[in-house]
Write a structure and sequence with these properties.
Helix content is 20%, strand content 33%. It is α+β, with helices and mostly antiparallel strands and 246 residues long.
């Protein structure tokens, strides 16, 4: 019985490891990516309400008319709403339009993007809820807040936009891509965030060791002998005699 339990635990560990590797392998093989001309894209922070920001990516498909205009104050004003931009401009608004890719692995289901303002600085971060430190993807200084002016975000070194490819077909989905594996990026992000550690992405949990089982001889001996308690005494025990009545 002990050997059977341990064998099952070992198979469980192998299964967990295989599941983790298979999940990464499927994500890697299902979608590929290809480079895109970076100058044809604008990564923007759109002001929402009084303090929130939303990530917006614009693509210039044809040369004219221009899909966005740079203003003298450093902000960017989208101009695609002034004309029929079908076939000229492309908007990527949310997780349906962009996701994270690291080390050749599609991480769209694990990470989400957010734009966080700290003082006069905007940070584009990729966040995994299980990690303490987010990945810094891009940033920009906040010159002013204007409802009609978007802030252009500069991607950090190593990060570039790529296009998702499925069976050699280019899709309308962009990656914020980095060549390094995600665990290495998370380790670097943690080292810059007050020394917080990180959980390696995709690592399976080790199986819990089973409790020790009694041997067959001990089990057989304990079951054949009744449970008794010895009473310590220093002399003969006086028994009560009940007279027999007729």
């Amino acid at each position: 019985m002990s050997r059977t339990y341990l064998r099952a635990a070992g198979l469980t560990a192998v299964g967990l490891l295989s599941a983790g590797l298979t999940q990464g392998g499927v994500a890697r093989s299902l979608f590929e990516s290809t480079a895109v001309p970076q100058e044809r894209f604008a990564v923007l922070a759109q002001p929402i309400g009084r303090s929130q920001w939303k990530l917006l990516v614009l693509e210039q498909i044809k040369a004219q008319p221009s899909c966005w205009t740079s203003r003298p104050d450093g902000l960017v004003e989208p101009s695609l709403n002034r004309f029929d931009f079908s076939g000229i401009c492309k908007r990527y608004l949310d997780s349906n339009g962009y996701s994270l890719r690291s080390g050749g692995q599609d991480l769209g289901t694990r990470f989400r993007f957010r734009i966080k303002q700290s003082g006069r600085l905007l940070k584009l971060e990729a966040l995994d809820p299980q990690q303490r430190a987010p990945l810094l993807v891009g940033q920009a200084a906040v010159a002013k807040r204007d409802a009609n002016g978007f802030i252009p975000l500069q991607l950090e070194p190593g990060w570039e936009l790529e296009r998702r490819v499925y069976q050699e077909r280019k899709l309308n989905h962009l990656y914020f891509a980095h060549q390094e594996p995600v665990n290495r990026l998370l380790a670097k992000a943690s080292s810059h965030s007050q020394g917080y550690g990180f959980r390696p992405w995709g690592a399976p949990k080790p199986p819990v060791a089973p409790p020790p089982l009694p041997s067959a001889n001990a089990t057989r001996t304990s079951s054949s002998r009744p449970s008794t308690k010895r009473i310590a005494s220093r002399g003969p025990i006086r028994l009560q005699v009940i007279p027999y009545g007729r």
